């Protein structure tokens, strides 16, 4: 653990071999004597609770960013949660994570700050294959639901994740928003909420969600770019999705899906909708050339951009 840029204690021994198997830690390295993977999640919760208890006593607004290590690997389930799901260790870990978040929210409530605090809960990607997805499916649980793919995939199962917001008096309880958003949009959203203007070279792909939080159902962004773990990009534009996966035998350099009617991405319409594909490829190129997807001055891309849309001769 690191506090104020210093480790708490000095890692002086390597992790024992027993912690490097069964989907626990996958990378050997130095650790504190007696360190346990199972202690990480409870410690994060404890630290978050202590912060909230202290911050709620102050008059200044507070900000807590709590990036949980769970339910990612290492799948380190504490004894009281083992077997609770009736599925497998990963599902047990999800339940433990849910309870951990519940403890943080209970502390927020107990501090008297819940009614005036915006809470955002989300995940960075879909379920990882290390969860033993075939086993979960055999037992009747489908981590991606109707979506195609999982973590690292360019498909919806890799990117379409829950985003839950609680803000009493501002966001209607139990409401559902059906608009396209990205987690990058929180940068512009929070900047607007605190009255800060982002510079032209910051938040180039961030759209404010304040109108959606207020209950409006007008799109704040019309398109969004996502990439698979292998760098393969996709473009959402309204209900359409273009995936840059060339098919050498056909000469078609992308797949095209209409998610409004095909959420599972089962029906490739590239050959049937060449005009739509052409328009989306042009939009993709414009976004690359502009270096941003929000209105504003052109920005430079951080790295050279690979053009995946290249048909085979």
Structural summary, described in words:
There is one protein chain. The protein is 25% helix and 11% strand. α1 (40-55) packs parallel to α2. It has helices spanning 40-55, 89-110, 133-138, 156-159, 185-193, 210-213, 274-290; strands at 2-3, 6-7, 13-14, 30-31, 119-122, 163-166, 223-227, 233-237, 240-243, 255-258. Among the domains are: 25-111 and 125-149, no CATH class; 224-290, Arylsulfatase, C-terminal domain. The chain has a four-stranded antiparallel beta sheet, with helices on one face. It has a two-stranded antiparallel sheet with strand order 1-2. Strands 3-4 form a two-stranded antiparallel ribbon. It is built from seven helices and ten strands.
Task: Pick out the low-confidence regions.
Answer: none
Outline the biggest β-sheet. 4 strands, antiparallel
Multimeric status of the protein: single chain
Average of pLDDT: 92
Q: Work out the strand percent.
A: 5-15%
Main-sheet strand order equals 7-8-9-10
- The backbone outline, from C-alpha atoms, is globular
Rg, alpha carbons: 22 Å
Q: What is the straight-line distance between the termini? A: 54 Å
Summarize this structure as a short list of keywords or feature phrases.
313 residues; alpha+beta; Arylsulfatase, C-terminal domain; four-stranded antiparallel beta sheet; two-stranded antiparallel ribbon; 7 helices
